[in-house]
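lol ok so funny story. i was supposed to be doing the assay writeup but got distracted and ended up predicting the structure for this chain instead. priorities right. anyway since i did it might as well share w the group, maybe its usefull for someone
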Amino acid sequence: MTQKIVPNLWFDTQAEEAAHYYIDVFGSGRGLSVARYPENSPGPAGTVMTVQFEVAGMQLVGINGGPEFTFTEAVSLQVNCEDQAEVDRYWDRLVGDGGEESQCGWLKDKYGVSWQVVPTELMSLLQDPDPGRAQRATEAMLQMRRIDVAEIKRAADSVPA
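and the output, tada:
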């Protein structure tokens, strides 16, 4: 089945490099197609115009559109992680390769793409039926850059003084 909605990521000139990088970071995926600029087009003839690729089962398109547009936090890609080890692995890779930490599990990679690296257990802690537990979990999360689910659990379970 064809993916109905395919995110398009606008790069200056690094779309193909970014596609290979994301496939490597997530350990699964493949390049699907590359389209090159023809003669008399906005980009230099023969250079990569778009690259369609798949990462972790999701299709994306990278566009080499020039420097006019850059990424912002208004759109991010969320990585749902099964455990802390997976959170740490993706966080370390995306930040460690020239990215930048933000807060509450958000970061920007070396291309400026915003990511949320989130343990799947986080939402159940933030939406706990006990409002006090949920509030303590939320307050702990708001103090973090990388999400530490064990620390959030400790905060949620703490008894207020």
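The chain has a mean pLDDT of 95. DSSP finds five helices and eight strands in the chain.
back to the writeup now i swear
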